[in-house]
Amino acid sequence: MDTGVGFFPTHDAIGPGEIARLVEERGHAGLYFPEHSHIPVSRESPYPGGGPLPRKYFHTYDLFVALTAAAVATTRLRIASAICLVIQRDPIHTAKEVASIDHLSGGRFEFGVGAGWNREEMADHGTDARVRMAILRERVEAMKAIWTQDEASYHGKHVDFDPMWSWPKPAQWPHPPILVGGNGPTVLDRVLAFGDAWFPNHNRGDVLDRMPELRERAEAAGRTIPVIMFGAPADPRELERMREAGVARAVCWVPSAARGEVERTLDAFEGAVRELNGE
Hints:
two-stranded antiparallel sheet, 38% helix, 16% strand, monooxygenase, FMN, oxidoreductase, alkanesulfonate monooxygenase activity, Lucif-like_OxRdtase_Rv2161c
């Protein structure tokens, strides 16, 4: 089990390039940036984490601008969206952005996707929350067509386009790994339908108990689907449970803050990892 770092890249915290260099220098495998275009002031949708919504949700840089800064500042680090709200995005433009950053980074991009939770944010983008899972699937499928076909076309209920040309293609073949976020009752269906990995939150339900089902269903389909756990705690006992369950990567959150506070959080997590490894 290797490790990664999750970080909201806000304009008033350590910059995305600087944190990427820091995470790479400290030996982590990946860096994950979330996305929110904005947060409606109405705040009718409750924050899934409970309590007030942290300000970092509405102070983030644009996802792909921040990812580009992280990519050019590093040489080995995997960089990823966590998650990209593709239900709020044009799939043709998003496919271009994904292919571009994967190409420019030398094939280091991981595409975390999900349907989101803020219904007012979705509505501002013209997305009907009632059909967001169907939209998610079609937009991912349409992007796969753009990445893998010289003359790409897609005809669905929510996405429809005739043959097109779009280059560059991603550096990774057939495309960057698609990490399907979510902890809901039907998330494993989506992982198996169009994902390459499951990307759940550690603190929302007992994910470890669901991993045998995912493994069994993936094996029946002749596939291997890793689990990348988001929100891993600085707790060697819980990290041991995750490793024993077969989690491929444990991703810890660090605060949207200055470098010193980020380093202190990383110190705590890395200390737990060293204890786990008997170091």
